[in-house]
Amino acid sequence: MTFASTTGFSYDQTQEFVFPLYYLSLITSEYQSAPNLYAWLSTLLTPLVDLIACTQQMYQSFALPSTAAALGFLNVAQGSQLDIIGQIVGIKRTLPFQPGVNTTTTEAITATGSQAVTVAGLNPPGAMGTSGMAVGGEVSIGGASPENVTITAFVPGVSFTATFAHTHISGVTVTSTTPPSAVLGDADYVTLLTAKIAQNQWNGLTSSIYQLLNSLFPGSGILIEDGGLTGSVMTATVVLPGGTLTPMQEQMVVAGLILPRPQAVLYIFEYANLPLFGLDLETTFVSGIDVGYLL
């Protein structure tokens, strides 16, 4: 049996609970054909219907993209809504560091023209290393003869090549000429929020870290190696394949904002070319003799 009203509500007795149709279906048989009663009840229920709709819309508006996709929501959190989520989970949109290239080298540049310069690595953890470098990017060279140069070639964590107008005998300090803002855009902030939520819920397993990485950076090939006890310090090496992350993503990883970290374990970050050397496995990320690269 189907009940109808002048407001357009209808309810089939075989259906499950649907508000407000369920309540309209409870009218006794004596008044089931009374359109005025249906109209009156529908009017009383309308504010509640609007309130429920508003609540549902609010819930969807504060959903991160992964949650929205899983639940089929049409809306996702953005802008100030993300900032509110950040307050709840405990991470701000503004990074605790200035992103961009920030590295030093003691290598002397003894000639002008095109030169390859070895750059500092990513240790100690949290150092920016070569993050933010890219072909075509401009960096500022400090020292006795400061100058700006454009990167013409770049090997992550190893070297960059540029054309120098001056020699730099005592080594150089390399910084960004136009560093990006420390205030994240929505896309990077969603990455940071998702990582923070995962950190708050982490169960301590390495497999859970890989699940997070596969969700945030699918196909990145980031590897984690348990270094065990090194001297008096427990260590783990995070291998970052060059070019698989954006400069901002890379810097957030190296700054310790993305990966859950066991207490008292020191993360060491290293770059690598893909595929890495390994036996009994042939994938995009690991390959054998004459193909795989050693760290």
Show the helix and strand layout.
Blueprint: E1 2-4, E2 10-12, H1 21-24, H2 35-61, H3 65-71, H4 80-89, E3 102-105, E4 113-118, E5 138-141, E6 147-155, E7 159-164, E8 172-176, H5 186-201, H6 206-216, E9 223-230, E10 233-241, H7 247-254, E11 265-272, E12 276-277, E13 286-287
Parallel strand pairs: 10-11, 12-13
Antiparallel strand pairs: 1-2, 3-8, 4-7, 5-6, 5-8, 6-7, 9-10
Helix pairs in contact: 4-5
Describe the overall structure.
- The chain is an alpha+beta fold and 295 residues long.
- It folds into three domains: 2-61, no CATH class; 102-176; 205-287, GMP Synthetase, Chain A, domain 3 (2-Layer Sandwich).
- 28% of the residues lie in helices and 23% in strands.
- The chain has seven helices and 13 strands.
- It has helices at residues 21-24, 35-61, 65-71, 80-89, 186-201, 206-216, 247-254; strands at residues 2-4, 10-12, 102-105, 113-118, 138-141, 147-155, 159-164, 172-176, 223-230, 233-241, 265-272, 276-277, 286-287.
- The strands form four sheets. A six-stranded antiparallel β-sheet has the order 3-8-5-6-7-4, with no helix packed on it. Strands 9-10-11 form a three-stranded mixed β-sheet, with no helix packed on it.
- The longest helix has 27 residues, at 35-61.
- 22% of the residues are buried.
- The model is unreliable at 1-17 and 123-128 (pLDDT under 50).
